[in-house]
Design a protein that fits this description.
Blueprint (H helix, E strand, L loop, with lengths): L7 E2 L20 E2 L8 E2 L23 E4 L12 E3 L4 E6 L2 E7 L14 E5 L2 E2 L4 H12 L7 E8 L2 E8 L15 H16 L9 H9 L2 H17 L14 H18 L5 H14 L20 H16 L6 H12 L25 H5 L9 H11 L3 H12 L13 H14 L1 H17 L7 E2 L6 E2 L32 H8 L3 H14 L7 H30 L3 H5 L2 H7 L5 H8 L3 H12 L1 H7 L16 E2 L10 E2 L7 E6 L20 E3 L10 E10 L9 E7 L1 E8 L2 E7 L5 E7 L11 E11 L2 E2 L2
Parallel strand pairs: 4-21, 14-15
Antiparallel strand pairs: 1-2, 3-24, 5-6, 6-7, 7-8, 8-9, 8-10, 10-11, 12-13, 16-17, 16-18, 18-23, 19-22, 20-21, 20-23
Helix pairs in contact: 1-13, 3-4, 3-5, 4-5, 4-16, 5-6, 5-7, 6-7, 7-8, 7-10, 10-11, 10-12, 11-12, 12-13, 14-15, 15-16
């Protein structure tokens, strides 16, 4: 030994007290180094097998199955998610992207396959910033100059391939995107068409309906109206409100937000009784502190959820603006809850108790420059908008500024990142035009990757699609109160000089209303601060006429096509806004006798008709036999290969500190493992150590099998290698910070190592977590 660098004596969790002095007192355990304390210690990716930390085109040519078991990342250290315009879902694979799913009908369908590893795009290596490289490539390929052409560098079956894809040409972003931007407008049009094709439903938490309303497209207003009137039918406002049975805050708040925005945008007073009832529900289910839980009471241990509660306050605010007699004490308590030591200090904490911060955290320039400010899953951003609405402009300024520098921190969120990607961009928009352009420029890669080839948008990290996050795309149009629309002419304190025009509108004389507004504006006497509201009313009158005409055209087309039931669904919303005695409405009602509607609905509900529309059944799934079994535990009682302890496959186990200590030939069938511990699966061992595992199984007829598969539940494992009869057949990596089921089929070549009779399975795997020191 040339040099001693540190000394430890008896440094164990349960030290051996055998060394004592003459008085019988034990020697105290000690260590000479003063190591920094770590909550947990992990390995680095670069000490893994080469395939898990190098570009795939540099891998050695072999036929070993490579499995990356990481299911999701924390942040963007490796990218997990959709490459939407391609129709490909990927998982992290070092500086590459592993393909996990390909959507049928997508540009990548039939060209990219599950198991492929993407290492470059358009000649550029993905590297450590794979998400930005891919986002930039999508942007470039979709330009007129790019002609939609994209080339992926792919590793498949030990070969490096160039795979050409044809994307849709979307055009070029303007320097001020999403303002005055042709490509943004094309994205919005595609999204509108997708929503219409899906039937124009309200979507998750009414977000799709909010998008349609935010577009300001009169042809889509009828779809919003239909979604709203469906709410009016669903909610029984005569039902007494029992706090414990008044529904979840998520839905009460989302419904109040939609109905409030819809009323202030359209002046349709038919929604006001339901909006009032929803606000009464919200007051009845509010926590005494001022926020809301999932539901009422939700359990004393359950925290107050800003993502559920803030829409509740928005809905109450809009109802108050409409002049409804809501519970003002409840509303003011909600405003105070989300403002005092929360929005005012740039926080919105999900939890029980006060959850307040008295002093704002200092800004870190490096964090701001990297777009890593945390908006509490978008709730600071939503607060920016609420604070502006209630006149707390200092808090609005702080929260919107934080949103501007959160463009690289929207991937995560408790319960999913929908709220983060719905509200955070809107918070940035709240700050200023220049701030929103700055945010969007850096946020573009995320939106490019999460925009699907069919026009829809990824709404949630689990892959659900919708249109809600498209509200940010049309925020510059300022058609909603949450996107900065002018003060609504339908609010309770509209200017007196606007009353004749409003009376005409309420009487459904929309043309007369528009005429009066134009006459008012022509006088030049409208005060400057009131002019946006007056223009708002004129536009609302014009657009509701256009929307009614578009709805009539749509219903008449349905009637010509014999779709009587679908046409009947449009009647309630049309009757709500069309003047009595309208000839087109009367003709439609006449063409929709009850017997025809019932017959058409019966046809649609007919099981045989549904069966005829049902897609062909998928081919029968492969039948798998478990050659190696494990004990069924209390937490995992069912599933293939789960058996009573007496029937479980016996394993031999040796734990080493490092693979350098593994005995030579430990994976070979003739290795003597009789001195190893005997055990069964599932098994755990000392953290941060490597396990060597061996078992044997018998195959009666090898020809009965045509494939092999690996299945396992892994707790923070890395550098797994699987040997069959001494031959390496697979490498599996479950990167740090993740736990879960990992499953994959081995390459066909693994079958050549399977034999009749006794087979030896050997596995090495490293436990990648160690608590404390």
């Amino acid at each position: 030994m040339n040099r001693i660098t540190r000394v430890r004596y008896n440094w164990n969790h349960r030290p051996n007290q055998g060394l004592v002095n003459a008085a019988g007192l034990p020697a105290i355990p000690f260590r000479s180094e003063q190591a920094e304390y770590h909550w947990f210690v992990t390995n680095k990716d670069d000490d893994l097998p080469i395939e898990y930390h190098t570009p795939a085109n540099e891998w050695a040519k072999n036929d070993v199955t490579l499995v990356n078991g990481q299911l999701k990342t924390h942040g963007y250290d490796n990218f997990t998610g959709w490459l939407g315009p391609l129709g490909v879902f990927t998982g992290p694979f070092g500086p590459n992207m592993g393909v996990r799913e390909v959507k049928p009908g997508a540009p990548a369908d039939g060209k990219v396959f599950v198991g492929d590893v993407i290492y470059s795009v358009n000649g550029r290596m993905l590297g450590d910033q794979a998400w930005e490289v891919m986002g930039d490539a999508i942007t470039a390929s979709e330009t007129e100059a790019g002609k939609g052409k994209m080339v992926l560098g792919i590793r498949r079956g030990g070969e490096n391939l160039n795979v050409a894809l044809q994307l849709k040409v979307m055009g070029t972003y303007s320097s001020t995107a999403p303002y005055d931007c042709p490509k943004t407008e094309k994205i919005v049009t595609d999204l509108e068409n997708w929503v219409v094709a899906q039937g124009g439903d309200a979507g998750f938490l009414n977000a799709d309906a909010l998008f349609l309303l935010a577009t300001g497209n009169p042809k889509l207003q009828g779809l919003v109206r239909r979604a709203v009137y469906a709410k009016l039918r669903e909610i029984d406002i005569t039902k007494p409100i029992e706090p414990t049975k008044a529904g979840q805050s998520w839905y009460n708040g989302a419904d109040a937000l939609l109905l409030g925005e819809y009323y202030l945008a359209t002046g349709d007073r038919n929604v006001l009784p339901c909006l009032k009832y929803l606000c009464d529900r919200l007051a009845a289910t509010q926590n005494p502190l001022g926020g809301w839980r999932h539901n009422y009471p939700g359990g004393a241990h359950y925290g107050l959820i800003p993502a559920a509660g803030l829409p509740c306050v928005f809905g109450m605010h809009f109802a108050k603006e409409a002049g409804l007699p809501i519970n003002l004490a409840s509303y003011e308590l909600g405003v105070r809850y989300f403002s005092h030591n929360r929005a005012e200090t740039g926080t919105q904490i999900y939890g029980s108790g006060p959850c307040q911060v008295e002093v704002p955290a200092p800004f870190d320039p490096a964090v701001m420059a990297n777009g890593k400010i945390w908006t509490y899953n978008g709730m600071v951003s939503a607060s920016a908008i609420l604070m502006r609405l209630v006149g707390n402009y200092r808090a609005a300024h702080l929260c919107s500024l934080m949103s501007v520098f959160a463009w690289n921190n929207t991937f995560d969120g408790h319960g999913g990142n929908f709220w983060n990607n719905f509200w955070t961009p809107l918070g940035a928009h709240e700050h200023s035009r220049a701030a929103f352009i700055h945010f969007w420029k850096h946020y573009r890669w995320y939106r490019e990757c999460n925009r699907m080839f069919d026009g829809s948008l990824i709404q949630h990290e689990d892959g659900r699609v919708g249109a809600g996050t498209g509200v940010a795309l049309v925020a510059p149009r300022r058609r909603l109160q949450i996107t900065g629309a002018p003060r609504s002419p339908f609010a309770k304190d509209a200017p007196d000089f606007l009353q004749p025009a409003l009376a005409a509108y309420e009487a459904k004389n929309y043309a007369g209303c528009e005429k009066r507004v134009n006459e008012l504006l022509a006088t030049g006497l409208v005060p400057k601060d009131a002019r946006p509201t007056v223009e708002y009313l004129g536009r609302a009158a014009r657009e509701i006429q256009e929307s009614i005409a578009a709805d009539f055209d749509r219903v008449e087309a349905l009637l010509r096509d014999g779709q009587f039931y679908a046409a009947s669904l449009e009647l309630p919303q049309l009757k709500g806004v069309v003047p009595l005695g309208d000839e087109r409405l009367a003709a439609i009602e006449k063409a929709l006798p009850a017997d025809k509607v019932r017959a058409d609905k019966k046809r649609l509900d007919d099981p045989q008709a549904a069966l005829a529309k049902k897609p062909k059944a998928a081919p029968a799934a492969d039948m798998w036999e478990c050659l190696v079994t494990e004990i069924a535990t209390a937490r995992s009682k069912q599933g293939a290969g789960k058996v009573p302890a007496a029937q479980a496959s016996p394993w031999r186990l040796q734990v080493v500190e490092d693979m350098a200590q593994a005995p030579a030939g430990w994976m070979q069938p003739d290795f003597d493992d009789s001195g190893w511990d005997q055990t069964h699966l599932p098994i755990s061992w000392r953290m941060y150590h490597t396990a060597l595992l061996r078992t044997k199984f018998t195959v009666k007829d090898r020809s009965a099998f045509d494939g092999l598969r690996f299945r396992g539940w892994l707790f923070r494992q890395q550098a797994i290698e699987i040997y069959l009869n001494g031959q390496l057949i697979a490498k599996v990596n479950n990167l740090e910070q993740k736990t879960g089921n990992v499953e994959a089929e081995f390459n066909e070549s693994a079958m050549k190592h399977l034999k009749d009779g006794e087979n030896t399975l050997a596995i090495t795997t490293r436990h990648n977590w160690r608590w404390g020191m």
